[in-house]
Every structure is written in structure tokens, then in C-alpha cells.
UniProtKB/TrEMBL annotation:
Protein name from the UniProt record: Transposase
Organism encoding this protein: Bradyrhizobium ottawaense
Classification of source organism: Bacteria, Pseudomonadati, Pseudomonadota, Alphaproteobacteria, Hyphomicrobiales
Annotated InterPro entries: Homeodomain-like_sf, MscS-like_channel, RNaseH-like_sf, Tc1-like_DDE_dom, Transpos_IS630-like
Domain Tc1-like transposase DDE stretches: 173-317
Stretches of the chain forming a coiled coil according to its record: none
Length: 354
């Protein structure tokens, strides 16, 4: 049974809105039909005739006549429909964040998605991953920081960075350090063909050790070139012998040498008196990463030493020397971009020492 038809009275403003809706090519079909129903009803048409012209059931025409008569244009909009209640809410998100503030279960180094889901008990692991991605929380990535108790941290760091950013005129700035105990390991290497036809390159787990060498290196900041020598040990005498070879490479030049706080690098006043053109600059305590030669040691490890095999200590040393020569042929200085040095305390930060 069709309800009694309601009279529809259109204001000029509403009529313009509905007519524009009917003319627009981007109007949705449902909105177009509702607008036509109201316009035809305002012209005095019956419910059945409107239904036949618009192509809907008479009850649909009656619905929108009543909706417009009661609520105006707002009545032609869909009412909010109750959807399915979400399983996980903001309370769940807060529980995940609260759990991340706690240490992981004993025996584990960090939280993982499955560990979080297991600890929560009623949260699916897929939701845990979606939440972490939406908040850009990476459980694997790690940041590092420098925690130094050096009271002169700022002054020492500024001194070193100043040599990188604005080196003294007509002076050579060198970064000096040593990479100790580089092992000459002999491993079986080659290609391994699997039963499925794939071929993998790699090396065996077992190895034979042929001794170790200590590499002393000096990085020239202006050019990026390396001066390197090998030694069996890393005592003060070996360090000063290396420095003698470095000063011989740059005769009659003022040398500013950046060093870390190793004992053999300090208390060399007698040697410095004999070499007045050399000045030592020390990085702050626990901040040897300020020494650019550490970056080069990382490059050496990645490009030359990782995954290699040596049958003798001499072969290892020759291998490193060959790499140094090749590196110097294409050497470029490192670009130091950080100019400001700040010293902040860890008070109030969420840092724990185990």
C-alpha cells in the first residue's frame, strides 16, 4: 500500500540546485533520480506517474517525497548506516605502543610482529604489522648515538670538524688510524650447483688461518688518497714508524693529524718536538667515528676483504696494497656536511644500559 502523497513545495533556491543536478554530467544516477522525483512532485504530478517516468517503484517516489517535505535538500542524502563494529580500536593501538616501551621477552634482542601478537593475546599479527607500517615503526632498523663522558666533547669535536670544513691554508690534514688483526683466511670458494639446476657462488664454512696483519692508514682529507703500511703489531713504536713515513711523504709541510684516543697515539711529546710541523688533534672520548679514515676502513672491508680467500699472509698484504693503489687512482675526498656540533645530556631520554 502506497502512503498518501505529500505535497512538495520548492523554493527558488532549491529548484535551481535540483535543476543543476539534473543537468550535470557527473551527477550520480541515484541523485539524479531523486532530484527528478522532487521536481516532478513539485509540478503536481502523481506518485504513480512519476514512478513510471523515472523508472522506479511507486514506494521509492513516496519515500523521497516524504523525505524532502520533512527535511528539505538534506533529506535527499543517504542516512548514515550502522556498519560492522571494528575488531580493533584506538585502545588496541595504545596497547601495542605500551608494549613496545617494555623490553622484549627474555632471550630475544627485539620485538617482532609475531612476538607482539603473542604478548597481546587477542590481536592478529597482520593487524600488528599494519599498525606498525601506518605509524612508520621499523622494528629492525637501529639508530646509533654517541654517549661520551668527555667534558671537552664540544671543543674537540668542533676542532676536528673545523679541519674538515675549513682546513688551514697551505697545510695537509690527515686522518690516521690502524685496522688491527686482519686475518688471512683460506676458504674453499667457487660455484655450487644445486639439484634444481641453480648455481650459487659462495665459500665453505671451514677455513685455515695463515696469520694476521695490522694495517696503518692515513687518509688525506683534501684528496681522499690513502697512505698505508703493514705491521705485525700495533705498539707505539709501530705507530711512530708509520708517522715517520707519513712525514717523509710530505716534507716541509704543516701536517694536522686527526687521531682517536688510543694510548699509543698519546704521550708522544718527544716525537712531536722532533717534528714541529706536525700537530695532533684527538677526537672526543668514545667518538672515533669522527675520524674519516674509519669510513675508509669500512669501504676496504666491504669492497676488498669480505668474501675473499688467502693462502698466505703475504698474499693478503699484497691484495690490500693492490686495492689501495686502485683506490688512489680514483680517490675523491669525502664530503663532510654537518657543521654544527651540539652536546646534549641523556637525562630524561628513554635509554637503558644493560
Amino acid at each position: 500500500m502506497i502512503p498518501e502523497a505529500r505535497e512538495v513545495h520548492l523554493s527558488r533556491k532549491d529548484r535551481k540546485v535540483l535543476e543543476a543536478c539534473c543537468r550535470s554530467p557527473v551527477t550520480l544516477q541515484r541523485d539524479l533520480k531523486r532530484a527528478r522525483i522532487v521536481l516532478l512532485a513539485a509540478d503536481g504530478r502523481s506518485t504513480r506517474s512519476i514512478a513510471k517516468e523515472v523508472g522506479v517503484q511507486p514506494r521509492i517516489v513516496s519515500l523521497w517525497r516524504h523525505r524532502y517535505a520533512d527535511h528539505g535538500l538534506e533529506g535527499l542524502q543517504d542516512k548514515p548506516r550502522p556498519g560492522k563494529q571494528p575488531i580493533y580500536t584506538k585502545t588496541t593501538d595504545k596497547r601495542i605502543l605500551k608494549l613496545l616501551d617494555k623490553p622484549p621477552p627474555q632471550g630475544f634482542a627485539r620485538w617482532t610482529g609475531p612476538l607482539l601478537a603473542e604478548a597481546l593475546g587477542d590481536v592478529d599479527v597482520q593487524y600488528v604489522w599494519r599498525f606498525l607500517r601506518s605509524h612508520k615503526i621499523d622494528l629492525v632498523a637501529r639508530k646509533s648515538w654517541c654517549k661520551s663522558n668527555d667534558p671537552n666533547f664540544t671543543a674537540k669535536a668542533a676542532d676536528v670538524v673545523g679541519l674538515y670544513v675549513a682546513p688551514p691554508a697551505k697545510a695537509i690534514v690527515l686522518c690516521v688510524d690502524e685496522k688491527p688483526s686482519i686475518q688471512a683466511l683460506e676458504r674453499a670458494q667457487g660455484y655450487l650447483k644445486l639439484p634444481n639446476g641453480r648455481a650459487l657462488t659462495g665459500q665453505s664454512h671451514d677455513y685455515k688461518r695463515h696469520g694476521t696483519t695490522t694495517l696503518f692508514a692515513a687518509l688525506e682529507v683534501a684528496t681522499g688518497k690513502i697512505i698505508a703500511t703493514h705491521s705485525k703489531r700495533r705498539r707505539r713504536v709501530e705507530f711512530l714508524d708509520f708517522m715517520n713515513s707519513v712525514t717523509a711523504t710530505f716534507p716541509n709541510r704543516k701536517l694536522h693529524v686527526i687521531l682517536d684516543n688510543l694510548n699509543t697515539h698519546k704521550k708522544n711529546e718527544d716525537w712531536l718536538k722532533a717534528h714541529p710541523n706536525v700537530q695532533f688533534h684527538f677526537t672526543p672520548t668514545s667518538a672515533s667515528w669522527l675520524n674519516q679514515v674509519e669510513v675508509w676502513f669500512s669501504i676496504l672491508q666491504g669492497q676488498s676483504l669480505s668474501g675473499t680467500s688467502f693462502t698466505s699472509l703475504k698474499q693478503l698484504q699484497e691484495h690490500i696494497d693492490t686495492y689501495v693503489n686502485a683506490y688512489n687512482d680514483r680517490a675523491e675526498p669525502f664530503v663532510w656536511t654537518k657543521k654544527k656540533v651540539r652536546q646534549r645530556r641523556f637525562k630524561g631520554r628513554r635509554i637503558t644500559q644493560l
